[in-house]
Amino acid sequence: MKPAIPKGTRDFSPNEVAKRNYLKATLQEAFENFGFQPIETPSFEKSSTLLGKYGEEGDRLIFKLLNSGEKLKKADLEALKANQLGRFSNSLSEKALRYDLTVPFARYVVQHQNDISFPFKRYQIQPVWRADRPQHGRFQEFYQCDADIVGSTSLWQEVELCQLYDTVFSALGLTGCSLKINNRKILAGIVEVLGVEDQFIDFTVGLDKLDKIGKEGVYSELSSKGFSQNALDQLDPLLDFTGSNDELLQLLSALLTSSEIGKKGIEEVQFVLTQVNQLGLNATTLDLDITLARGLNYYTGCIFEVSAPAGVKMGSIGGGGRYDDLTAGFGLKNVSGVGVSFGFDRIYLVLETLDLFPPSVIRSTQVMFANFGAETAGLIQSFVRQLRIKKIRTEFYPDGVKMKKQMSYANQKDIPFVVLIGSEEKAQGQALLKNMESGEQTSISLENLISALENQLKA
């Protein structure tokens, strides 16, 4: 059988892993510079921890783990007979792969609340899994990189998270990213004014699909959910609006004069916009986008989404927002949180597309010693050890095969220098140092070999 991997997953070559490590290190440095601390949670959680937190569509994308052994006897066969497939499926599984890092983080906070100093700032870089249809930039297994603060309602946290995005993108040389902001309270105010308060979730889920199905598609979906033509007509100016942040805020203020929650959302967004603009951003722009909804149900305040620079075909490369009630589902009430996620794999693809990975990211072997057999192997190993102690990446070709094959190996790995010490060189107290790029060979005394290699690598 021909070997293959599941759709939506990937293998990574040594060069790809080196680039991913560079991206991860850049994120970690920024997170820690902002005072975030790392945690890790299990790859899978109890199904009850995850289900019901992401909305109906999110729940459908959760990978469930099949029970094994005696637990399979718990299967609800009556549900199967009644064609209640959802109930039957749930009876076969008590655990699921994590869909994101936010819900497991909320569970972590509640479980470890007595050991945490609030406000608690954590970052997490781990894989997540979603049973989504694989396509460019969308995988079934991918990394998320989250930074969250729980235990504070201060809007300064939102301001800091905007700066965090800008800091990371600046460090990566990724300029021209578009950071969008909205507020779920504004969206709640809109449905209140439209007279459809009980359909808030339908509204946000439909609005979240605007970039995929267009305005007419959104209107069609909302109509099917019972939205009147009058409600859609009132919504139309907002979806078609083009103008500055201040002009949009004025339009919203006029529309939401009768909605207290809507006015609160406007006030929160205005504070963040004002403070961020005063502090300034280097690599990103910050704009109010009233069509931004973030489909996940747990958001309650400011929400964010980041788009790649113009000209790069990619979905959002980051997003997040304020959530006031997430820990309440695990028994801890009145703990507000806010966080953002960096789309690790999508950012990687953007950096690759724009050729923004520094050449120094690929940390290949710097020096290779050719193998001339047992007579010189011991001497060579002593040099290998000395170079490794000096943090010079060194290897000894393991087999005494033809020199052509050894040189071919060095070329394939882009090893810049090869050292040749055969029986004749050993007897003369010399080594041949070959520059693989120029092809030049230099004779160097064995006692000066280490210092000569250090100097060559610094040049």
Question: Order of strands in the sheet with the most strands?
Answer: 1-5-6-11-10-9-7-8
For CATH, the homologous superfamily of the largest domain is named as Bira Bifunctional Protein, Domain 2
CATH topology of the largest domain: BirA Bifunctional Protein, domain 2
Query: Quick one: overall form?
Result: elongated
Q: Provide the domain count.
A: 2
Write a short abstract of this structure:
The chain has 18 helices and 16 strands.
Supply the key terms.
459 residues; alpha+beta; Rossmann fold; eight-stranded mixed sheet; five-stranded mixed sheet; 16 strands; 43% helix
Description of the molecule:
By secondary structure, the protein is an alpha+beta fold. It folds into two domains: 14-41 and 99-353, Bira Bifunctional Protein, Domain 2 (BirA Bifunctional Protein, domain 2); 364-458, Rossmann fold. The protein contains 18 helices and 16 strands. It has an eight-stranded mixed sheet with strand order 1-5-6-11-10-9-7-8. Strands 13-12-14-15-16 form a five-stranded mixed sheet. β15 (430-435) and β16 (441-445) form a beta hairpin. α1 packs antiparallel against α7 (156-171). The chain is elongated and about 95 Å long. The model has no long low-confidence stretch (mean pLDDT 92).
List the topology elements:
Blueprint: H1 14-33, E1 37-38, E2 44-46, H2 47-50, H3 55-60, E3 64-65, H4 77-81, H5 85-91, E4 95-97, H6 102-111, E5 120-129, E6 141-150, H7 156-171, E7 177-183, H8 184-194, H9 200-207, H10 210-224, H11 229-239, H12 245-255, H13 260-279, E8 284-288, E9 302-307, E10 316-323, E11 337-343, H14 344-353, E12 367-369, H15 374-389, E13 394-396, H16 403-412, E14 417-420, H17 423-428, E15 430-435, E16 441-445, H18 449-458
Parallel strand pairs: 1-5, 7-8, 12-13, 12-14
Antiparallel strand pairs: 2-4, 3-4, 5-6, 6-11, 7-9, 9-10, 10-11, 14-15, 15-16
Helix pairs in contact: 1-7, 7-13, 8-13, 9-10, 12-13
